[in-house]
């Protein structure tokens, strides 16, 4: 088993540490203690599923979400550099090709369809929630270690998989290709397999951490879920 080292500067608030006999699998413990439904079944998600999501709401969401593309690629690259094994480095590196290739292409085509000006695509005014989310993303990775970075990446990807799968279950024809395609990107087998792999990495290394780092990883996971819900809120402002 790969050793798990304690990074310097990791601070946690007092709280209940993980107990495998009581809490089951580590990644399930992380989800259960978060406010998962607030994000995964947000008003935005329900309106998306019901075909009632307005274009102006989706456009605001998409413009802000595009600002995460580069940040998400950088934090995934950071996770790859922190990984405990070469195989993990390779898996995380593979995900960068998706972020910098297929997803970027989708954004540009959707922006064209929604008539989003170039300035709004590349350099929009960041919503305070977007700015806070990006700042938190970088701090979560750079102030901790591999497991802290995984906590952020896994929570963010798992939220997308969950709510997009929920929307796809409705099997509704939305008549706006950019809504359908955004969901389809996140319900393919490859994305589900990647998200499952991230959760399994947390399940492998989380129980080996000290109680302090387990709580820190849980706090990062919790905060990521909270920010995902807040990001949906921002699309309506």
Describe the overall structure.
- By secondary structure, the chain is mainly alpha-helical.
- Helices cover 73% and strands 0% of the residues.
- The chain contains 13 helices and no strands.
- The protein has helices spanning 20-23, 26-33, 36-40, 43-50, 55-82, 86-100, 102-113, 118-122, 128-142, 146-169, 177-185, 189-205, 211-234.
- The longest helix has 28 residues, at 55-82.
- The termini are far apart.
- Mean pLDDT is 89; it is low at 1-14.
Number of strands: 0
Helix fraction bin: over 70%
| First-residue to last-residue Cα separation | 48 Å
Largest sheet: none
Low-pLDDT residue intervals, each spanning 5 or more residues: 1-14
Strand content: under 5%
Query: What is the overall shape?
Result: globular
The rounded Rg comes to 18 Å
Task: Write the element-wise H/E pattern from the N-terminal end onward.
Answer: HHHHHHHHHHHHH
Count of alpha/pi helices: 13
Oligomer: single chain
Mean pLDDT: 89
Secondary-structure-based class equals mainly alpha
Descriptive tags:
mainly alpha; 237 residues; globular; 73% helix
Task: Provide a quick synopsis of the model.
The protein has 237 residues and is mainly α. Helices cover 73% and strands 0% of the residues. Helix 5 runs antiparallel to helix 6 (86-100) and helix 9 packs antiparallel against helix 13 (211-234).
Topology of helices and strands:
Elements: H1 20-23, H2 26-33, H3 36-40, H4 43-50, H5 55-82, H6 86-100, H7 102-113, H8 118-122, H9 128-142, H10 146-169, H11 177-185, H12 189-205, H13 211-234
Helix pairs in contact: 4-10, 5-6, 5-7, 5-9, 5-10, 6-7, 7-11, 9-10, 9-13, 10-11, 10-12, 10-13
